[in-house]
Amino acid sequence: MAQRDAGTLGSARGADDVAMAELDLPNPRRLLIISIVAIVLLGLSVVIAAGYSVLSINETAISAETERAQVALAVLLHDGQPDAAGASRLARDFVLTGARFGDAASMQPGEVAITVPGSETRLMWTPRRIGTELAQHLAPIRLLASALFLAGIAIVLNRLYRLARLLEARRRAAQELAARDALTGLYNRLGFDQRLGQTADGPALLYLDLDGFKHVNDSFGHGAGDDLLRIVADRLRGLARDGDCVARIGGDEFAFLRSPPTSRAELAELAADIGVALSEPVRLGATQIQIGASIGIAMGSEHGDDRARLVAAADAALYRAKALPGHAFVFADSPTISAAA
Asked: For the chain, what is the domain count?
């Protein structure tokens, strides 16, 4: 009972570790995508803002130039006529680029015009678009600044991505560590429960309890008992095939989860192999000891998806095996008893 309480406590602590390990850490790929989208949106907002600034400066400059043209036209009409010579004078003295007089039909794209009072004639010229000119002059500087900005962003993104990958790797390592028994390196109760829930339909479960382990602890100390548990773990690990799960449930209890497909004969052979492997002498310091194991076996094909019933059946079969003399293995569905070694 004490062993089961210890296993339950270890499982609870493992659950706390996994809960901490499963914090909502950023996914590296998602973080990279979100960052790129944010940069693109920031870049678009800067471009749009710059475009509006250029248009605003252009409109202000054209408005000011139009007011100056009206003053210049009034001066010209006071002293002369709206002819080619007058247009040249306006272009020279009042800085109206390409100033000329003509009707509305002769107006060219990009020009602005004001009407000569009392006639259909218009004064037309090409205004300076200061915002556009300024943007063109500053284009090389803007491109350099943009390149430096993007390079800085790329460095920051790279570091964030690497940090996120490191956090993800540590989270996975923490999850794996929480599911492992620190003493033997096997899965612990938490890891066993996780693997049991992930196993396909029809797994088979062997529950093991070491015979004579308490005597080793009492006679040689807990250090020797720990050494023995490590040796047992190595021997059980050597009998596992791909897809199997070997776990230390608590104390000197182990679980051996065999993935499907399997059969009763194969499980009986596996139980016998486990009995033989664990009955081989173990040297602890200057002393050589021999232990064994009682094994309870439950077949998943008899319990379907009910993993709790599978575990309960294997546990009940283990207790029946422990009640028998010697080392034995017992199937949960049968009173038949077989020698484990």
From this structure: 2
